[in-house]
From TrEMBL:
Transmembrane segments: none annotated. SUPFAM superfamilies: Nucleotide-diphospho-sugar transferases. InterPro entries: GlycoTrfase_DXD_sugar-bd_CS, Nucleotide-diphossugar_trans. It comes from the Bacteria. This is Glycosyltransferase family 32 protein. Pfam families: Gly_transf_sug. Gene3D superfamilies: 3.90.550.20.
Length: 277
């Protein structure tokens, strides 16, 4: 029986690095290292991070220069959403969508976004499935109809996983410059067509706090002590990283400091505190 390798994959630095490696990213890697005790952590990058926190975590990583993915630029002009992604310079996130599938198909392992915080070790039995994804709750499709959505922020897969292979093969045709047509939406359609190829876990496992204003406030401004069946949290950092963006929360990356985490007064701070440097 093929098992999911206990190798964790992270992708970072697809754009030039102009600030030191952030505490949130350090805590992602350190919580992964200490809780999951992986055989290896592969850090896939184009531009290497720098700074004291990077130098602290770097010895625990296997550095893997990334093979870049060229995306069809014309696709971004077909929708308002795509045009904004291109204008804001966010297309590197799409590139990471393709890279993670290629890496998992070739090597297998556990992929997680760098804005993850691990809360408990991933259950041993999940490593026995060909592919594992988490439900993130129903989302409206292009017609406004609510449909199940499988998030790609954490993926477990065996090398050559049949589900990942179908997903990777279909991604280029599905890519239309929008956020999730080729990723979460395609994964959900594949699940409906081939449920035997993927094991789907409840939202609580990886996505307890959804990407809504209430979800972000519950993470960074309030304290939710209920961690039953929570193994990791996805921070959705693109929604709050910049101080100028306040439509989801007034919290921003500049406020995520060691002092904030050490105080332990919010959900994220309480759960991240054990992994401070």
């Amino acid at each position: 029986m093929t098992m999911v390798p206990r190798v964790f994959h992270f992708i970072f630095g697809l754009k030039e690095q102009t600030e030191p490696f952030h505490l949130a990213h350090y805590l992602c890697l350190e919580s992964c290292r200490r809780l999951n005790r992986p055989d290896a952590i592969w850090f896939h990058y184009a531009n290497e991070p720098y700074g004291p926190l990077w130098e602290r975590i770097k010895p625990h990583l296997s550095l893997r220069p990334v093979v870049r993915e060229a995306l069809p630029a014309a696709a971004y002009g077909d929708s308002e959403e795509g045009r904004r992604i291109a204008a804001e310079g966010w297309s590197y996130a799409h590139e990471a969508d393709f890279i993670r599938l290629r890496v998992l198909h070739e090597h297998g392992g556990v992929y997680a976004d760098i804005d993850t915080l691990f809360v408990a070790p991933l259950p041993d039995h999940l490593y026995g499935y060909d592919c594992v994804l988490g439900d993130e709750g129903a989302l409206p499709d292009e017609r406004g109809i609510l449909r199940p959505s499988l998030c790609n922020a954490l993926i477990m897969a065996t090398p050559g996983s049949a589900f990942v292979e179908r997903w990777l093969d279909g991604s280029r045709d599905a890519f239309d410059g929008r956020w999730t047509s080729h990723s979460c939406q395609l994964a959900s359609r594949l699940w409906e067509a081939h449920p035997e190829l993927v094991h789907v876990v409840p939202r609580q496992y990886f996505y307890r706090h959804p990407w809504t204003p209430a979800g972000m406030r519950n993470l960074f401004e309030r304290l939710d002590p209920d961690t039953r069946d929570v193994f990791s949290l996805h921070l959705c950092s693109h929604l709050w990283w910049d101080a100028g963006r306040t439509d989801f929360t007034a919290f921003h990356a500049g406020l995520l400091t060691e002092e904030y985490v050490r105080a332990g007064a919010t959900t994220y701070a309480m759960l991240a505190r054990p992994y401070l440097p």
